[in-house]
Amino acid sequence: MSASQTHVVSVFCFRVCAVTMRKTPSGHPLSFFPVVVSLCFTPLCSSSTAASPSTTTPDHNMATKVAVVTGSNKGIGLAIVRALCKQFQGDIYLTARDVGRGQEAVQSLASEGLKPMFHQLDINDPNSITTAAAYFKDKYGGVDVLVNNAGIAFKTADDAPFAVQAEVTLKTNFFATRDMLTHFLPLIKAGGRVVNVSSFVGSSTLNKCSPALQQRFRSEDISEDELVGLMQQFVDKTKKGEHKEGGWPETAYGVSKTGLTTLSMIQARRLSKERPNDGILLNACCPGWVRTDMAGPKATKSPDEGAVTPVYLALLPPGATEPHGKFVSEKQVQPW
């Protein structure tokens, strides 16, 4: 047969059934998720020369867009997932530390006719982060939308020592969120959107810091390493009762959010420098004062209202160039 002739080749494909077992950090199995088995017989017309890789059909999942929301089994995170299910064209992942609570949240949205997917993710567990990152890289080739929503706050009446509150709060709101970004930013696809849920409390806290600290947090040449050092300095000084003398205010939550917003600006600048043609937009935002377990029942906004600005940033249209590296509230860029 000459090279110019063509012939029909029958290709038999068998997709293997896979069962994924979720585990707790201690290794105990929690639940199983079967993947659909399919057996297909596909006649293909091809030339006698092998097709080049560029002409092969891409894996369906690699072409599917995917959004991931941390800490989304309740509150603002759940509302963000709900809104994305209605507006985002792709797979939306609700994530939670606790598998049972996460799956209950998925079922609650299913009762509304929405179809989010679930993946266990505890941002305070490095193994959980790396496992999730590997999952999204292998299944989708990366992530299109990442919303870092997970966070904690001590109640005003909590009698835990301030040093304890500082260490625990910054561990989640700053250091663990930074770990998420460290592992997931390389996975963000061209045109991707990254949203870090911060707070207006971070802005007011910044204004209460010493002039020297304010200058560094607002500086465009502050490095991520310097910022990490400042956040650790705050924790260390609270243990010695020296944070006020060091120019820090008396709010662990506020400092954690000041750090997160500053981190967002640093990483946005890095994206612009290292991936200038990828069109990725990364921002920090304030959802507002929202009625959640964290803020309490007197807050002025519902969770769905609190989700408006994070979702707006997550769905900035293709080709948009701003906002990027900004702090956004009520869908408007705010001064820093």
UniProtKB/TrEMBL annotation:
PROSITE patterns (UniProt xref): ADH_SHORT
Group of enzyme by EC: oxidoreductase
InterPro entries documented for this protein: CBR1-like, NAD(P)-bd_dom_sf, Sc_DH/Rdtase_CS, SDR_fam
NADP found in the keyword field: yes
EC numbers for this chain: 1.1.1.184
Keywords: NADP, Oxidoreductase
GO terms, molecular function: carbonyl reductase (NADPH) activity
UniProt-listed SUPFAM superfamilies: NAD(P)-binding Rossmann-fold domains
Listed PANTHER family: CARBONYL REDUCTASE (NADPH), CARBONYL REDUCTASE 1-RELATED
Protein name listed in UniProt: carbonyl reductase (NADPH)
Record organism: Seriola lalandi dorsalis
